[in-house]
């Protein structure tokens, strides 16, 4: 077993380079299943969720070749209509269901196990299914398998109004509609940066997708897609996480390779809290030399404050002056990490989707804690960097699903962090709820 040991209280100084966006990569890689030619995809983050989606694609018959650390060639010409990814792989990640949209579009049929992913309570996929059915597929869910098939082999464009702006449903419907007959209009579509990135990738292969980044996306189906060369955008959430790391530990760090526009909502909140942020063309300089101030945060779909940054900013607010309110507006159950922050001395009351955080002005203290999901783990790292003493974080496989080289990146700016092999007997026990 492996854990992170972090000795907090060191201010951070230097430069961090941001990797490609994980949530864009896990949509763009399956989108390469649509192409008749070879795709060269650059700036792919080396994280375990990406490794997993690539394993799934290989099982489906795609040829995947690493040409550089973050660049892959993908050839999907040998992918067969009846290929199926093993349950053991699919259940381990949410984004495996993007194979469904890609297969339906290319072959008119798809069969995928119900997906897994972080546990934030119930995670239905009714909006995806509603979209596939509107495009003419017959969808059945039986014995943990989702089966979708179009009677005449080709989907037909239509208008789809999502009940809410689901990121996953928007992506899956975009994939499905790309090779459909006619025009598909997705209304109340999600607007996250990775939706725009996927649209740009699809268009680079010859698709006709317009309006991504607004709440109405129009997809005119084309007959076939070609290979292309494409570089994935920088990771908004990874950048935001390092911004909160500086807020928590103090210091001055240049965060390179970012799109400042994508970070505006995070920049605005951290500025309210007393963090100084200087915006350059593709970098931010983040510094914090005074104690943090309280604020209120509501996690919402883009362009609101990202739910995937809610735990990390809450970790900073634990040692701010005053009482803050953090509201989760996307997921039912995204406060499971709070019990772990309490082990470090945080004073937090949770009521449904609201957390009231009373800042502990003397700061948090290191403790053994357990990551229960990806961003929960990131929040514990952020908290530990600002805490006094040593924090040992277990469950780090969650963190490594989404953060490339986190130990190296933080060590390079002066954090005292290491990854340590431990025996099962020494492992940190999970909180029993
Ligand atoms: N929902 C439904 N029905 C659906 C789809 C979603 O009820 O058919 C509900 C969900 O239960 C949730 C809300 O709608 O309450 C939002 O879900 P959404 O579909 O937008 O999320 P997702 O596509 O499953 C992606 C990211 C998550 C991120 C959310 C929200 C990926 C692979 N995952 O999930 O990222 O939290 O959007 O922005 O893109 C992470 O990176 O740590 C992460 C969890």
Quick synopsis:
The chain is of the alpha+beta class and 433 residues long. It has helices at 22-31, 48-59, 87-90, 98-107, 126-134, 167-177, 193-204, 236-249, 264-272, 310-317, 338-343, 374-386, 406-412, and strands at residues 2-7, 12-17, 38-42, 63-68, 71-75, 109-113, 138-142, 145-149, 159-161, 183-187, 208-210, 216-220, 229-231, 251-256, 276-279, 283-288, 296-299, 323-328, 347-351, 354-358, 368-370, 390-394, 416-421. Helices cover 29% and strands 26% of the residues.
Report on the structure:
With 433 residues, the chain is an alpha+beta fold. It has helices at residues 22-31, 48-59, 87-90, 98-107, 126-134, 167-177, 193-204, 236-249, 264-272, 310-317, 338-343, 374-386, 406-412, and strands at 2-7, 12-17, 38-42, 63-68, 71-75, 109-113, 138-142, 145-149, 159-161, 183-187, 208-210, 216-220, 229-231, 251-256, 276-279, 283-288, 296-299, 323-328, 347-351, 354-358, 368-370, 390-394, 416-421. Strands 21-22-1-23 form a four-stranded mixed β-sheet. Strands 2-14-16-15 form a four-stranded mixed β-sheet. Strands 4-5-3-13 form a four-stranded mixed β-sheet, with helices on one face. A hairpin with a 5-residue loop joins β11 and β12. The radius of gyration is 22 Å and the shape is globular. The model has no long low-confidence stretch (mean pLDDT 94). It binds uridine-diphosphate-2(N-acetylglucosaminyl) butyric acid. Uridine-diphosphate-2(N-acetylglucosaminyl) butyric acid (EPU) binds next to α1, α5, α6 and α12.
């Amino acid at each position: 077993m492996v854990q992170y040991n972090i000795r907090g209280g060191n201010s951070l100084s230097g430069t961090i380079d941001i990797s490609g966006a994980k949530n864009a990569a896990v949509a763009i890689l399956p989108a390469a299943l649509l192409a008749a030619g070879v795709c060269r995809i650059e700036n792919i983050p080396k994280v375990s969720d990406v490794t997993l989606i690539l394993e799934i694609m290989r099982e489906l018959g795609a040829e995947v070749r690493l040409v550089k650390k973050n660049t892959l060639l993908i050839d999907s010409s040998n992918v067969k209509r009846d290929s199926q990814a093993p349950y053991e792989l699919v259940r381990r990640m949410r984004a495996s269901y993007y194979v469904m949209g890609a297969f339906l579009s290319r072959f008119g049929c798809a069969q995928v196990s119900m997906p897994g992913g972080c546990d934030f309570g119930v995670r239905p996929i009714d909006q995806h299914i509603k979209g596939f059915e509107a495009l003419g597929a017959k969808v059945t869910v039986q014995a943990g398998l989702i089966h979708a098939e179009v009677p005449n082999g080709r989907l037909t464009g239509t208008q789809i109004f999502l009940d809410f702006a689901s990121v996953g449903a928007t992506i899956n419907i975009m994939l499905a509609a790309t090779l459909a007959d006619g025009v598909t209009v997705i209304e109340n579509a999600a607007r996250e940066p990775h939706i725009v990135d996927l649209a740009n990738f699809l268009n680079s292969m010859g698709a006709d997708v317009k309006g991504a980044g607004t709440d109405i996306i129009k997809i005119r189906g084309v007959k076939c897609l070609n290979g292309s060369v494409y570089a994935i955008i920088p990771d908004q959430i990874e950048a935001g996480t390092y911004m909160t790391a500086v807020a928590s530990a103090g210091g001055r760090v240049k965060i390179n390779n970012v799109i400042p526009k994508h970070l505006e909502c995070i920049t605005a909140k951290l500025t309210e809290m007393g963090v100084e942020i200087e915006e350059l063309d593709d970098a931010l300089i983040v510094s914090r030399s005074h104690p943090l101030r309280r604020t209120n945060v509501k996690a919402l779909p883009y362009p609101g404050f990202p739910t995937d940054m809610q735990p990390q900013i809450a970790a900073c607010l634990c040692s701010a002056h005053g009482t803050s309110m953090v509201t989760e507006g996307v997921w039912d159950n995204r406060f499971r990490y709070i019990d772990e922050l309490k082990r470090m001395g945080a004073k937090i009351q949770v009521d449904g989707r609201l957390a009231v955080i009373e800042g502990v002005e003397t700061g948090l203290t290191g403790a053994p804690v357990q990551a229960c999901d990806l961003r929960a783990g990131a929040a514990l790292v952020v908290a530990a960097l600002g805490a006094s003493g040593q924090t040992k974080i277990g469950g780090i496989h969650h963190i490594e699903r989404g953060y490339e080289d986190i130990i190296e990146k933080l060590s390079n700016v002066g954090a005292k962090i290491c990854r340590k092999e431990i025996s099962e007997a020494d492992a940190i026990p999970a909180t029993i709820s």
